[in-house]
Structure formats: C-alpha cells, structure tokens
Design brief:
The complex is a heterodimer of chains A (about 290) and B (about 290). Chain A is mainly alpha-helical and about 290 residues long. Chain A is about 80% helix and about 0% strand. Chain B has 2 domains: about 55 residues, no CATH class; about 220 residues, MetI-like fold (Orthogonal Bundle), CATH 1.10.3720.10. The chains are: A mainly alpha (about 290), B mainly alpha (about 290).
C-alpha cells in the first residue's frame, strides 16, 4: 500500500514537472523575443525589414553597426556614463558602509544616530518628482548644469539612503568581538573600521555596487534634468533623443542600441550571482 | 585617563562615520526637499531669479485645474494595472523557477531577470518597434501606442517585461523559505494543488507581498521615463501621468511653483498610500 502511494506520488510529480517545464519554456521565449528581434533586425537592410519583419537576414552585414556607431556618437555617451557611474558607486560604497556600520552599532546608544536612521528610511518614500524642480534650481544657481561632477554629486546623494539601509541590515549580523578586541588593544576606531570591519562587509559591498552600477548606468530622470548639452549626455539620455530622431531606420538604431547594451549585459553576466543574492536577501528584510 | 580619552575618541567617531554620507544626502535630497516645500508656495516660473510668495494659491488652483484630472486618472490606471499584472506575473515566474526542472529553471531565472538591466528608454524603443511594426504585420492590428484606450495597457506590458525580474527574485526567496514538510503534511492530508497554494503558499508569502506590492504600487504611480519616451504622454494626453505633468509644468508651461505644489501633494499621497498598504499586509504576516 505504502509503495503504491509512493509510486503514484512520483508519477504525479513528473507530470507537474513536465507541465512546469513547458510553461517555463513559453515564458522564456516571450521574454527573449524582443532581444532576439533586435539582434535580427540589426543585421538586416531597411528593405529586408520592410519586406518581412521576422525573416532571418539574408547575409550577415555589419553596415548597420558601422553606420550606427558613426551617427549615434554613443561612444562619447558611454564614456560619460562611465565617468558618472563608477566614481558615484565608489563614493556610495565608502559613505554607506561607514554610515551603515555606525547606525547598526550605535543606534541603541545615541539618539542622533538613531534619528539619522529614521530620516534615511523616511526619505526612501519620497518620489523623485518632488526633488526635480528644486534640484534644477540649485544646479542653475551653482552653475553645475551640464557638469559630470554635478551629476556624480546627485547620483551619490540620492543613493545614500537605500545603500546605507542595506549596509545596516548586514552590519547587524557580523559579530562585534573582533573589532572590540582590536579597540581594547589600542587600535583607533577608524583603523579598526578599515582593517577589520570593512573586509567583513565584503558580501554586501559586492551587492550594493552591483545593484548601483546597474541603476546608475540606467538612470534617466536626473540626467535628463541636469545634462542638457549634447556632448555631456549620458547613454540613456542620448538614447532618448537618438531614438526620437531615427524612428524609421530600425536596423541602424537597433545596431547602435545593441552596442550600447553590451557593457551592462556583460556586467550583468559577470555579477549575476551578487545581484540575485542581494535582491533576494536585502529586499525581504525591508 | 588614557581609557577615558579613548572612549571619547570612540564616541566622536560614531558621528564622523555618519558625516560623509549625510553631506551627500543633504545636498541631493534633504536641501532640495526643503527648498521644494518653499517653492510650492511661490509663483516661480523656473527661469527668472525673482519670485513672490502666493501662499496657498498654488494648492487652491490644483483643485480648479481641469488639466490635472486626466493625469491623475491615468496614474491610477497605471498603478492598478501595473500592480495587479506585475505581481501576478512575477509570482508565477517565481513559482516556475522554484519548480525543480534542473538546468532549465536556472537558465530561466537568468533570462527572466535580464530585461531588468535594460534601461526604460531602450525598453520603450524595443517594444515600440514591436507595437508599430511587428503586430500590424503579424496580426493586422494598428499600433496600440496610438490608441487612446490601449496606450496605457500597452506601456504597462512593456514595463512588466522590463521590471518583473526583481519582484520575481523577492517572491522566489520567499518561496524557498517555506518549509517543505508543510506541503508534505498537506499532501498526506489529501490537499490538492489549489488548496496547497491557497492555504500554505499565499499566507506564508505575505512578507514578500508586503514588499512587492508596496514597491510596485508606488513605482507605477510614479511612472515617468518609459511613457515619456514611448508616447510622450500622448495620444492627446491619453497616457500623460502625474510625473510627466509635473515635468511639463517646469519645462513647457513655466509654472515651476505650481508644478512643485502638485509634486508636494503627490508626495504626501504616495507616503500615505505606501505606509497604509505596507501596514495592511504587515498585519497579516504569519509567524512560523
């Protein structure tokens, strides 16, 4: 009797697995469709695209890519994106790791530290739209418009609250004993942080940087307001104006967009593990 | 004596650690926020240096403004469609990849997440192509983006493709935290698939629901970049959201003061909605 039930159950699981696999494949195809379509179209001539949307390109030609890179000037925009993204992420990691560490350790002792934690959390709810007009005004007064340095300031500042929040959660879980021992032995609090605490925070540092590289690279709202001049635009803003102008020549536009997508896709493949783990771990604790 | 000094040193260091982050935060969030509250009570046009205080005039004119009602209705449409669609889709995807199908589920997890790293602008361009060129050729339907009733659902669909990966991962880790012996016990008691889902999965997933529903709801209320680049708020304002309206008040109508008043009320509304939704679900969370 037991054995019969056991066999029945196994069979049932198998059927459900097959059904799940089929549905998964259907969804995978739907999710891949736009990307595959973009790659196919990028190799086709406008005539081929006009004749049939879904057909394969007759021959692999890189004309669209050459033309696209020439006309879009995405290379300059990509450099701008690098200049704004990476220093911002470095600043975010430095500031948020220190802030998160002290909030995790001292919010029970010090009222100021505790209230800082509350301010950060509350600020997470503010929509960006309320900062849009004042930021525009500040940047106009300080003449920081069209400056990549100004862009770094605002990207870092708006990311501090969330990244600190992620660090607080992680710092609470690392043991105090190591740093306490170092402090008793006469090590200063700053050296103890650099030499002992920061290395222990490495997993969350990986997550915070992976997430923010992705988010800041794709930032559109702030770049749209601050970077108005053609040669200062970052990739997303560039894409916004470029696609607005070239809606007809799809092959060329797709070729340009695939090139602009490559760095972030390669980065994603490399950092996939940290992104996946970080989101699963950090968000549910919130 | 030395110990006391050391202690002092330590208690100062608490605040020193906070300082750099707080400086950036003040510059980009705190000061603009306070300035924004101030601007909302003025008639600043966004260009000139001088402005005068008009007190509550901006807030009163919001209620008289006939142009503001359409963006509000559109944002609500986005919020409802995006929240329901987004959570159903990402929970389904999470359950699919939670099903042990070996390599397939691992590969699917990466593929479902990949669109997350594509920017909103690129997403709207990719899907704009599909709506404008592929659908007409395949099914003979005109571009949904040019249709007053279908523009918002069409943009929501591309948003779901773009963003579901993040919520999928949150649901996925929630699913992994449910102990399997609960399901085994239910099977022994003769529960069917639906009963298992309804009585075990849903209640134990409530923490994930709290996070995902609050996040998607407030994110879709704020919808900006994708709509701006897909339709520009058109056709004839049919997809214009509150965020786009605020943006237009600054750059097109030169009514920064008024736009800021709208933004302030909008922020207040979002905080209230966000807090009450997350409280609603927090109360229903089950402790294991």
């Amino acid at each position: 009797m037991e054995a019969v039930i056991e066999i029945k159950r196994r069979k049932k699981i198998k059927v459900s697995t097959i059904v799940a696999a089929i549905i998964t494949i259907v969804f995978v195809l739907i999710f891949l469709f736009p990307i595959v379509l973009a790659i196919l179209t990028s190799f086709k001539t406008p005539l081929e695209t006009a004749e049939s949307i879904l057909s394969l390109p007759k021959q692999i030609n890189f004309n669209n890519y050459i033309e696209g890179m020439k006309r879009s000037n995405f290379f300059r925009a990509m450099i701008n994106s690098c200049i704004t993204t990476f220093p911002s992420v470095a600043l975010i990691v430095i500031c948020a790791s220190m802030g998160g560490y002290t909030i995790a350790r001292n919010s029970a002792v010090s009222r100021i530290v505790k209230s800082m934690d509350t301010v950060y959390l509350a600020s997470l709810m503010i929509p960006f739209q309320i900062l849009m007009i004042p930021l525009y005004k500040i940047y106009k007064t300080l003449q920081l418009q069209n400056s990549l340095f100004g862009m770094i300031l605002v990207l870092t500042g708006t990311s501090i609250a969330y990244s600190t929040f992620l660090y607080v959660g992680f710092a609470k879980s690392i043991p105090k004993e190591l740093e306490e021992a170092a402090l008793i032995d006469g090590c200063g609090p700053y050296r103890a942080f650099i030499k002992i605490v920061f290395p222990l925070l490495k997993p969350i540092t990986a997550t915070v940087s992976a997430l923010h590289i992705m988010w800041l690279w794709n930032d559109f709202n702030m770049a749209l307001i601050i970077l108005q001049k053609e040669e200062m635009r970052t990739l997303t803003v560039k894409q916004y104006y470029f696609f607005g102008e070239h809606t007809a020549d799809y092959g060329m536009a797709f070729a340009a967009s695939i090139v602009s997508m490559l760095p972030i896709l390669l980065f994603f493949i490399a950092m996939q593990k940290h992104l996946v783990e970080g989101i699963s771990a950090g968000a549910v604790k919130a | 004596m030395k110990k006391k000094m050391n202690l002092n040193h330590r208690s100062i260091s608490r605040y020193v650690f906070l300082l750099p982050g707080f400086c950036f935060f003040s510059f980009a969030v705190l000061i603009p926020f306070l300035m924004g509250v101030n601007i909302a009570f003025t008639d600043w046009n966004g260009i000139t240096k001088d402005y005068t205080y008009v007190f509550l005039d901006n807030f009163i004119s919001i209620f008289k403004d006939t142009r503001v009602s359409a963006p509000i209705a559109n944002s609500i449409k986005y919020a409802v469609l995006g929240t329901v669609g987004g959570n159903v889709l990402s929970l389904s995807l999470a359950m699919l990849i939670n099903h042990k199908t070996g390599k397939l589920s691992k590969m699917a997890r990466v593929i479902f997440f990949t669109p997350v790293c594509i920017s909103a602008i690129l997403t709207s361009f990719l899907w704009g192509f599909i709506y404008r060129e592929v659908f007409p050729q395949l099914f003979g339907i005109k571009s949904l983006l040019g249709n007053r009733t279908w523009a918002i659902p069409a943009i929501t669909a591309m948003g779901l493709w773009n963003g579901s990966g993040i919520n999928m991962l949150i649901y996925f880790s929630g699913l992994k935290n449910i102990p399997t012996d609960l399901y085994e016990a239910a099977v022994v008691d003769g529960a069917n698939v639906w009963q298992k889902f309804r009585k075990i999965t849903l209640p134990l997933l409530t923490p994930s629901f709290t996070v995902c529903i609050t996040l998607t709801l407030t994110a879709w209320f704020r919808e900006f970049a994708m709509t701006l680049s897909a339709t520009g708020g058109g056709p004839a304002g049919a997809s214009r959201t509150i965020s786009i309206y605020i943006f237009e008040n600054l750059y097109e109508y030169y009514k920064a003061g008024y736009g800021q008043a709208v933004a302030l009320l909008f922020a207040l509304f979002l905080v209230v909605v966000g807090c009450s939704v997350s409280r609603f679900f927090r109360k229903r969370e089950v402790e294991l």
